[in-house]
Amino acid sequence: MSLPVTKATSATATHAVVQAVETYIQNQNLLGEIAELDEMLCDLVDLHKDNELALKRVLQCIHSLLQTNSKWNVRFGPKLFHKLVSVVIADSHEDTPSRRQLVANLLICVQLHGRKFPRIQGKFVLQQLWALSLSNDRQPHAAQILVHLVDDFVHNLGTECGVQLLGITQTLLQSEVREDRRSAYFLMSKLKDVDGVLAALQCSEQNWNAYVGILENLEEQQSHLVLPTLGTLVPRLGLMASNHSDDWMSWLRILCIRLLNDNNSLVLRWTVKYLLANLSLSQLSHFNLVTEFVAATNRTQLYNSEIPDPLTEQQIRDFMAGYPVDKLLEAMVTVQWHCVPLIHWLMGWREIQLPLVPKELLLGLCARIRALQNPVLRGSAINEVIFLFGNTINALSLCDYLMFMESLYNTVDDYADHHQLIDKINNCRNLEEHIEYFSKRCAELISRKDYQYDVFVAFLEKLRLVPTEKHGWWRLVPIFLHREIDKPEQYLDFYRDVYKVDSSLLKSGVSLDQMQSHLLDRLGCRTREEKSFVRENCVDLFVKVNIQTWDKLHELHLNPTELLDQGTDATFKTLANILAEHTKPLEDVTLISTMVSRLDRLKCRETQAILQYSVANLNDDEYEKCVVGVLEKNTFLLGCLDSESYIKAPKAYVLQRLLEGETTTGDARIERSFENEFGQRSDVEAMARVQFIAYSQKCKTLDVNSICVDLLNMNNELSRKKPRYFANSKEHRRKMRIAKAILDLSNQWMPGLWEAVLCPSDQLNISFIYEYLVAKLLPDIAPLLDQLKNLITLKPSQQVSLISVVHTYCLTRWDTLQQEQLTIIFSTLLPLTMGANFQTRLFAQLVLHRLATKCIGSSLDQPIAEVLKNSIEATLGDKLAEFQKDARLLLPELVEQGIENVSDAILWMTNAPFDENISFFNCRYAFRKKLMDVRETFQAKRGEQTPEHNSPACSLNGNVQRKMNPIGDIYPGCDFENTSNTQEDREIIVVASLIDKLPNLGGLARTCDVLGVKTLILGLKSQAEKSDFTNLSMTAEKTLNIVEVKPETLAEFLIGKQLEGYKIVGAEQTAHSTNFTEFKFPKKSILLLGHEKHGIPADLIGFLDYAVEIPQFGTVRSLNVHVTGSLFIWEYCKQHLAKDN
């Protein structure tokens, strides 16, 4: 038989030709290279270069002929492999799964051919592939080539290729593609064993291993593994050393960038803290990492004060000490900042005198600040810039300063540096050179403060010397301000002289149309923007000079709603002020709601004016609607001394606002927490609740007791509905607001207080408030003594609360107590000092110790007081002083210290969230120190719950946990049909048909998959679908070959396998069992596992070729069948598979 001479023209024909080639070879005793076979296969590759199926069939043929156990010693020429490499890899830029599979098959063939014939032209093919992987052109399969053939490259091309691989590995390491990065880790693990590589980098093997270990764990993104790894391995890199080679520095830089860019906030936090603690900014600059580090710290979450150990201003200040300001600014201006991180960096410069910095850098920083979204924190950042860069700002020219203003401020920001602008205008020799920078935005900025008048006076003096056509926007503003200054003629003389303005038209008695027309003409307004500005400011001026009373509007036939629409806020302010003095009903019933809609939290005077009119002139329904609308916009007036005269808020609305407030999360919450620290602005919603409490305290028309009863009922209903809740959850916050309002407002006993104080699962600060409240509001001690009768029947947490009430009541009302009452208290609490619950026992001891101490020497001396005191001191020993810091023991001292805002003190010491506790309470320093100690205890308890806090900084023995996927999972292996008997010669089949417990079967399936067993026999295949199976199998059933063999057909199955050459190994104790430790598994084994209880039945024992038992040294009869099976499978793998893998 000869080779086929007809070229294939289709995939089917290709298959036929390949089959003919294989048949031809099988019928010949072929040795060596066959030229005509090479030509035939080359023609097939050329003809079907775009047909992956045909190419795969050709590669299958080549692979079959190259198998090491093939009886034909066929050798292919280099031409065929060069052709295949060109078609499959070099000329193709596809990167699909099917193409990767084709590449994998080709690389296996190349590898097999090169290893079978190592001394001939196979090396040339490797050189071709090596050149492809080094090519500057983007070769999508370069990493796959290197991963498959790295050992062959080093072996055949010499160890010098290892140094060349470093550059490729670096590139792969920085790729966005996960497979590329994993390929880099694989190559790095190989490179450490190549001669000369570590020497070229001038790093140690420990450095290199640590480097690879860190990156591999980062790739998996498992915080519980990554953080311990970092703590152990990062110190081994020697980042602080000063003698790194340039090459090793470049590798360290890549790793640091990877850490600093990690999306896992815990990893980033760890990295930033480590660098802050161990390096300075100057040291970091040696790695060229300043910009990257600064950008990495631009994560608001890093500064979250509600978690343990956030980044602080002091840490950043220490880190940046001594580093050149201009160099740091160069890095900072490249970052699109968030508010909190930027302010921390700016505050790091507070304690040094900054030198002059380049104007461009200052303007770049200003642009970043202007882009900040939070107006309060943006204002803080602006103030920092004004303070820090004063020298540079002073040195700016007038035009540069105006550019600085525009770059730094939004129009809603408060510009307060008017004196600086006045000085620069006065010192300007030629205003004409700078006039183009006097923009509308700059005018709007300076017009927000009263200092604007002095600015415009200075400006107009200089403007006289500038040609009129160049005057720009600023010419429009001062004329409308002349009534606000002491010497208006300073403004008016300029306009009369330069613009020929008739100043008489700016006074009363002139129509609005006349004023607008005259000024539009004289000021030369051309653009729509200029005309609009003049018209609306004319309305403001007209209303101010002509409307002194509300009746004047009617007299001049003016519609106030139209005036509000045509003017600015100045018109609204004027009309609101005259409305307050108006005593007649308005013709337009919608005007009040129109004016209310224009209010905001800063328009307090206008708010007051509207309410003063409404309370005097509206009916009850209209007023209630008005006051609710006003208070939705502005609550600051609630704290005014006379507010109750014009604010009469409905009880239901007050109750609603006492509890109102949404909880923010994420960056927005952190920014709100810093608004108070940086911007001196308390949380708006929390402040509103405080203001409604203040209003309720002083409003005589409000039924405060009824409000307190309603609040207490809400609390008790919430306790019944949701008895357990998390700290700072929605339920906890509602309870905090209720408890604070009741404590601040209540002054008489309420029946529901006992239910509130004895709630068994309240958070501690809620319990503290009600314990204090009950002790404060109890009319006398009788109800307390009645409750003590039931003390022994209460839950431990309830007992502690009741003891706390006793403690607070007794110490704050000591003078009202009688000796018999104290005797009852002592006798009731004494048994609890020997109770089973530790917390109850300890707290009872502490309270009795305090009461006994108080009794000694007083008129209420108890016979057992001194003995009891000494006994407790002996029992607690040195720990007594430590236990005295218990938070509950401070409750009576809140009364003794005379603290007015007791609710705020309790919330503060229990570390309540910042938006639930904003009021400041005054107390002596020594007592505040006690409260601070308690607060730190609460903070520490909360910190213990965070994952980062619980993660060990490092592993004590230097080992780190790794759970990595096998590196072979990066790219596909070959999928050739197996034409050899290699695998068939070594196989273990696990037979579990006799096992009926699904967890055992699921565990066995997982073991089989992990150790490479292909086939698992079950009694019912449907067992693998049950949840009890899948909970343990961890998806192993998806890859295993699961075969169903029912117990009754098991004998027939075993006989069939014995005929195929398999040996049956049974895990069973028999009279002739082989010791497991001495047993050598046959290469082809069937592992038969018995029933959990009955083992292998007697009728199957006879089929066993080997009965094997595990030696035992304890008393339990046997191991679990899953454990037994796992041990057997592992022993087989160790003997037959482990070396190959």
UniProtKB/TrEMBL annotation:
<keyword id="KW-0489">Methyltransferase</keyword>
<keyword id="KW-0007">Acetylation</keyword>
<dbReference type="GO" id="GO:0030488">
    <property type="term" value="P:tRNA methylation"/>
</dbReference>
<feature type="domain" description="tRNA/rRNA methyltransferase SpoU type">
    <location>
        <begin position="988"/>
        <end position="1129"/>
    </location>
</feature>
<dbReference type="InterPro" id="IPR016024">
    <property type="entry name" value="ARM-type_fold"/>
</dbReference>
<comment type="similarity">
    <text>Belongs to the class IV-like SAM-binding methyltransferase superfamily. RNA methyltransferase TrmH family.</text>
</comment>
<keyword id="KW-0808">Transferase</keyword>
<keyword id="KW-0694">RNA-binding</keyword>
<dbReference type="InterPro" id="IPR044748">
    <property type="entry name" value="Trm3/TARBP1_C"/>
</dbReference>
<dbReference type="InterPro" id="IPR001537">
    <property type="entry name" value="SpoU_MeTrfase"/>
</dbReference>
<dbReference type="Pfam" id="PF00588">
    <property type="entry name" value="SpoU_methylase"/>
</dbReference>
<dbReference type="GO" id="GO:0003723">
    <property type="term" value="F:RNA binding"/>
</dbReference>
<dbReference type="GO" id="GO:0141100">
    <property type="term" value="F:tRNA (guanine(18)-2'-O)-methyltransferase activity"/>
</dbReference>
<dbReference type="InterPro" id="IPR045330">
    <property type="entry name" value="TRM3/TARBP1"/>
</dbReference>
<keyword id="KW-0949">S-adenosyl-L-methionine</keyword>
<comment type="function">
    <text>S-adenosyl-L-methionine-dependent 2'-O-ribose methyltransferase that catalyzes the formation of 2'-O-methylguanosine at position 18 (Gm18) in a subset of tRNA. Selectively mediates Gm18 methylation of tRNAGln-TTG/CTG and tRNASer-TGA/GCT. Gm18 modification can enhance the stability of modified tRNAs.</text>
</comment>
<dbReference type="InterPro" id="IPR029026">
    <property type="entry name" value="tRNA_m1G_MTases_N"/>
</dbReference>
<protein>
    <recommendedName>
        <fullName>tRNA (guanosine(18)-2'-O)-methyltransferase TARBP1</fullName>
        <ecNumber>2.1.1.34</ecNumber>
    </recommendedName>
</protein>
<dbReference type="InterPro" id="IPR029028">
    <property type="entry name" value="Alpha/beta_knot_MTases"/>
</dbReference>
